[in-house]
Design a protein that fits this description.
Strand content: 15-25%
Number of helices: 9
Largest sheet: 9 strands, mixed
CATH class: Alpha Beta
Oligomer: single chain
CATH architecture: Alpha-Beta Barrel
Length: 310
C-alpha cells in the first residue's frame, strides 16, 4: 500500500499547475518526491549550532559519528568551510541536487546560515537550497531567505494548540527574552503560522515536520494536518519520537502506528512517508549517507579552523 500511495502522491504533485522551476524543486528533492530519493541526493552543512527554543525531545550532539538523527553532527562548520565541503561533495557526487541547512540548532538563529546561503547561491545558482527551522524567526528572516534563493522550507510544527505546545517546549527565546509555559507556546505558534503563511504566499514549497509523541500530541496530529493543508503547504512529514531528554521514558510509536496516522492525515495534505530522520551533516541519498567519507573541514574563509572543539 505504501508504494501505491507514494506513487499517487508523486503523480498528484506533477499534475499540479506548477511552473517548470517549481516542478524541478519537487522532482529533484528527495524529501518532496518519493521517487527522487532513489536518484537525487542532498548535502547538509552543519553551520547552525545555536537554537532559540528547547524541545523536550531534543538533544544536540557534536563530534558524534554513531547516531543518525536530527540534531547530530560530527563537526560545526564555518560558512567558508561549508562551501569547501559542498565543492568536494558535488565534484565527487553528481547526483547531489540539494544543499540544506538543518542545524544542529535552528538555522534562522545563526548568522552563519545566511552567509553560507549567500556563498552557495552565488557559486551554485541552480542548486536547490533548503532550510529546516522551528519557524520562530521565519517571518523576520523570510526576505533574506528569498534573496538567497531558498525556495524549499521545512517547518517543525508539533501543535496548533498552545495547551499542547506547552507540554512539548521547555522555553522559547524571542526578542531578547526567555518565555516558558503557555506564553512560550503561544509566541512560537503565532510565529510559525505567520511564517508558513508568508512562505506559501511567496510560492515557496513548504514541508511540515510533526514529531509524533504518544500521550502528548498524538490525538492532535490530524488537526495539524488539516490546518496546514488548508494553508497550502506542499507535504506533511510525521516523525516518530526518539525517546530522550524529558521524553526519554515515552514509548515511541510503532511503524504501524505511524502508518495509521498517515492515513488519518492523508485526506488533508500530501504525505511524506519515507523520512530517514537525517543528521545535520547528512550527505548522499536518503538512507545511504556517506558523510563519513568526507574529511574535516578545510581552510574555508580564513576566519578559523571551522571545526568544533578546535
Amino acid at each position: 500500500m505504501e508504494t501505491r500511495e507514494t506513487d499517487k502522491d508523486l503523480r498528484d504533485a506533477q499534475n499540479l499547475p506548477y511552473d517548470p522551476e517549481t516542478l524541478r524543486r519537487i522532482n529533484e528533492h528527495p524529501c518532496y518526491s518519493p521517487e527522487a530519493r532513489h536518484t537525487f541526493g542532498r548535502c547538509h552543512v552543519a553551520v547552525a549550532p545555536k537554537c532559540n527554543i528547547q524541545c523536550n525531545y531534543c538533544v544536540r550532539d557534536y563530534d558524534c559519528v554513531n547516531e543518525s538523527r536530527p540534531g547530530v553532527t560530527s563537526e560545526i562548520l564555518l560558512p567558508g568551510d561549508a562551501l569547501e565541503r559542498i565543492d568536494e561533495v558535488v565534484s565527487r557526487m553528481k547526483h547531489i541536487k540539494v544543499v540544506g541547512i538543518a542545524g544542529p540548532g535552528d538555522p534562522l538563529a545563526n548568522e552563519e546560515t545566511f552567509e553560507t546561503l549567500r556563498l552557495v547561491h552565488e557559486k551554485y545558482p541552480d542548486v536547490i537550497l533548503c532550510i529546516s527551522t522551528n519557524g520562530l524567526l521565519l517571518p523576520e528572516k523570510i526576505d533574506i531567505l528569498e534573496k538567497y534563493g531558498v525556495r524549499n522550507i521545512t517547518v517543525t510544527l508539533n501543535a496548533i494548540d498552545a495547551a499542547i505546545g506547552e507540554k512539548i517546549y521547555s522555553f522559547v527565546e524571542y526578542g531578547g527574552k526567555k518565555y516558558h509555559g503557555r506564553e512560550a507556546a503561544e509566541i512560537l505558534l503565532k510565529q510559525q503560522l505567520k511564517g508558513i503563511e508568508e512562505a506559501v504566499k511567496r510560492k515557496m514549497l513548504v514541508k511540515i515536520n510533526t514529531v509524533y509523541i504518544p500521550g502528548v500530541n498524538d490525538g492532535h496530529i490530524p488537526e495539524i494536518a488539516k490546518k496546514v493543508g488548508a494553508m497550502g503547504v506542499f507535504n506533511f512529514n510525521i516523525i516518530p519520537l526518539i525517546p530522550q531528554y524529558k521524553f526519554k521514558d515515552v514509548v515511541p510509536p510503532t511503524n504501524a502506528d505511524k502508518a495509521r496516522m498517515h492515513e488519518l492525515c492523508a485526506p488533508y495534505v500530501r504525505q511524506m512517508r519515507h523520512c530517514q530522520r537525517c543528521r545535520a551533516d547528512a550527505v548522499g541519498l536518503l538512507g545511504k549517507d556517506v558523510q563519513n567519507e568526507f574529511g574535516c573541514c578545510g581552510k574555508g574563509d580564513g576566519s578559523g579552523t571551522g571545526c568544533s572543539g578546535e
